[in-house]
Write a structure and sequence with these properties.
alpha/beta, five-stranded parallel beta sheet, 20 helices, binds 5-phosphoarabinonic acid
């Protein structure tokens, strides 16, 4: 395991020991499946229980898409979107679509209701060979369903219905939902999202694995990283990195630090932080409780949010993920004229400068009253992404139980949907429509 968690700069702000004492019970509740939401624990053993047949089908589909498509359009939202995007950006680059040479571009749609975004994607597909991976566990979510209707129409227009059907891959529930019905009726190749894995815990299922494999990322390595992390965090010990993270953040929360900022000094981490926000926000933000999960990109945001972090309201703490190396070696060159005054950096690697920026910032923020949790991991790779995913998922499960909530439901997500359906005139919502319209 290459991951470690340093909580000394959290321990100076909050008493972690009493929370640590609650960890054995929270850990047992999760692994023995005795807590609320225990019908959604399929992700706990997922990396060890991969169905070899399903994995082989995923790889074969990815190979076909890599051969016959310039673009894979991935349609999904929330847990059916963020994990794959995070993995591609983390393992390859946020500029993946600009630098991919032998792999198809991966374009994400259905994660908004923006007409401008949809029109832009339509224009980008012009003249390309493309395929669709439509992903929805419920099979009924409005954003991806609308996008799929639009892009399926375009694909059928381009290739004819029969050929288009061979270019559509549906990742959805085993039996239920409109998408499953469509996939069965139109004979799309389908992949199953297990019943007992919620959307935000699904990146290591076909939800994430198919688009990730299309981008040319080694999914076996990713699963190996997750499997090794699962073995490491199964241990009931105060050295367990999930225990350290869960205990520190809950101790801070109880001491009044109600916002957690997840950060890294690598731009490729940005969507991993987006994925993390969904994981923790949906899992813990309920029953009028929960740490508000936020994120910043460093060092970029030191020139925007840095002011607030240093001197704003003192209810925030940071969880900073750092990498052993960026995976690239770039040196600051010597300059004869030294007009920019930077020769004191000449000969240093950019990684060294970046890590000094991180160390200096950590000390400044801690001195300014911002507790810090440091998560260190090896360089970005498919393996370390798998490790990081499992680490944050397992920590989230036990952290939710420490907080006293059901970490595996998301009842609050329904409220906006009901209002949207009512306002847009979905049959069955007539009374609600009248009531809402009277308030608009
Ligand atoms: O984590 C969750 O359950 C949600 O965020 C879902 O992933 C999101 O709402 C998309 O749902 P679906 O996959 O059913 O379209």
């Amino acid at each position: 395991m290459s991951l470690s968690v340093d909580i000394k700069n959290a321990a100076s702000f909050a008493d972690i020991a009493p929370v640590m004492a609650e960890l054995p019970a929270a850990h047992d509740t999760l692994v023995n499946g005795t807590g609320e939401g225990n019908d959604f624990l399929g992700w706990v053993k997922l990396p060890c229980n991969v169905d070899p047949e399903e994995l082989a089908r995923i790889k074969a589909a990815a190979e076909k898409i890599r051969k016959d498509s310039d673009v894979l359009l991935v349609i999904g939202i929330g847990g059916s979107y963020l994990g794959a995007r995070a993995a591609i950006e983390y393992c390859i680059s946020p500029n993946y679509n600009l630098i991919c040479k032998d792999s198809p571009k991966v374009i994400f749609a259905g994660n908004s209701l923006s007409a401008a975004q949809t029109a832009e994607i339509t224009a980008m597909l012009e003249g390309c060979d493309w395929s669709i991976n439509v992903i929805s566990k419920s099979g009924t979510t409005t954003e991806p369903a609308v996008a799929f209707r639009i892009f399926r129409g375009l694909l059928e227009e381009k290739y004819g219905a029969a050929e288009a059907a061979k270019r559509i891959y549906a990742t959805t529930d085993r039996a239920r939902g409109a998408l499953k019905t469509l996939a069965n009726t139109l004979a799309y190749e389908s992949f199953v999202i297990p019943d007992d894995v919620g959307g935000r815990f699904s990146v290591l299922t076909p939800v994430g694995l198919l688009p990730i494999a299309v981008a040319g990322i080694d999914v076996d390595e990713m699963l190996a990283g997750a499997r090794d992390m699962a073995a490491a965090v199964a241990e009931k010990s105060e050295d367990n990195p999930c225990w350290r993270y869960a205990a520190a953040r809950n101790a801070l929360y109880r001491a009044g630090y109600t916002t957690e900022i997840n950060a890294a000094y690598e731009p490729r981490y940005r969507y991993t932080a987006e994925w993390w926000k969904q994981l923790y926000g949906e899992s813990e933000g309920k029953d009028l409780k929960g740490i508000f999960p936020a994120s910043v990109d460093l060092t970029a945001d030191l020139h925007s949010m840095g002011q607030y972090i240093q001197q704003g309201m003192r209810n925030i703490f940071e969880t900073v993920v750092s990498f052993g190396s960026s995976g690239a070696e770039v040196n600051v060159p010597f300059s004869e004229d030294n007009l920019d005054g930077l020769n004191f950096l000449a000969g240093h690697t950019l990684d060294e400068v970046n890590s000094m920026a991180a160390a200096g910032t950590r000390l400044a923020h801690v001195d300014g009253g911002v507790p810090n949790i440091s998560v260190s991991i090896d360089k970005p790779s498919a393996y370390s992404f798998g490790e990081l995913v499992y680490f944050f998922e397992f920590a989230c499960g036990i952290s939710g139980y420490l907080l006293g909530v059901n970490p595996f439901n998301q009842p609050g997500v329904e409220a906006y949907k009901v209002n949207m359906y009512a306002l847009i005139g979905k049959p069955g919502y007539e009374d609600r429509k009248a009531e809402l319209e009277s308030r608009l």
